[in-house]
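Incident log, structure service

09:12 report received: a user says their structure output differs between two submissions of the same chain.
09:20 pulled the input from the user's history:
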Amino acid sequence: MRIPFVKPHAIGRELSYIAEAIATGRLAGDGAFSKRCQHWIESTLGCTSALLTHSCTAALEMAALLCDLKWDDEVIMPSFTFASTANAVVLRGATPVFVDIRSDTLNIDENIIEDAITSRTKAIFVVHYAGVGCEMDKIQDIARRHHLVVVEDAAQAILSRYKGRFLGTLAEIGALSFHETKNIISGEGGAILINSNLYRDRAEIVRDKGTNRARFFRGEIDKYTWIDVGSSYLPSEIIAAFLFAQLEQATALTERRKQIWTGYHEALHEYEAAGRLRRPVVPNNCDHNGHLYYILMPDSESRTGLINGFKKMGISTPFHYVPLHSSPAGMRFGRAHGSLPITDRAANCLVRLPMWVGLEPQLDQVIDAMHAIMAE
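09:34 re-ran on a clean worker, output below:
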């Protein structure tokens, strides 16, 4: 493809920081660069505690452990998300309960969550799709009344806001992704955000193989030992060094993506006005981060025609999730709460346009290709 859907970027001091990390002689996790990254996340986003992980998947698995999910528990979540959201629950023996999404933001529909709650419900996992916030006030109110834990899958949402507050910091636990497809990258990588002191100490233990080794390195105890369940969720210092260079440029990177997003949005207004597609919706109480730009075509046939038209011009425009409730594993390990027509429509009609820092010189080429296809 002449224009890929996504292209990893390195625009800061990534290589020099990696060399610095190597020179320290310590490449295992929780070194100087890990601490710098965690301090940046805590001070910028305002969470109680941030811990780097080797992926957002790992952060979600940690969240499931911190929620004390057990066999036969249930967790409510959208079906329109990546497998990691559900896998974290299934690995604890719990059941994902898939509910439908809103037609505007494609986020979990907060108005049907309460109807899906049973005596087995333990938590709600929300997903901030495309970096646009879920309706967190209502979700948090539901959770409080039913004594449920809320986990924010903010994989796509770093530096996005809901009512002025950063996504990932609104619930008890949040999870970020630094995968190469995200706004801020380290190849693979993630972070768990702890927003309640109730989970702070245990998160540190779970992340380090169930041991209290972090306290030992801080000189708080004279030896460390295995005290809880856990796994090896730490990233290496090489990953942290790359990530810190990205975090230093996080605001600039986000603004560049938002400019590309706005370029698409303005160029496609005429097609939405004519009823030929639907553009993304960002509620007034949300600030997005330009993570991705998608459009919803009227049906699967027109979606396929658009993707094929772009492909002929050397431009990659993929669809997105296969809904979890209709996937083989989803039907085996989870259950759907009622029918999910909006989820199904999004899966059949959504197209994602190229979005990456550095696309700016080719943005007009993508837009011109869209005009040409729509004129056929």
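09:41 both user submissions now match this output. Likely a transient worker issue. Closing.
09:42 reviewer note: Residues 265 and 279 are 7 Å apart (CA to CA). The longest strand covers residues 121-127.
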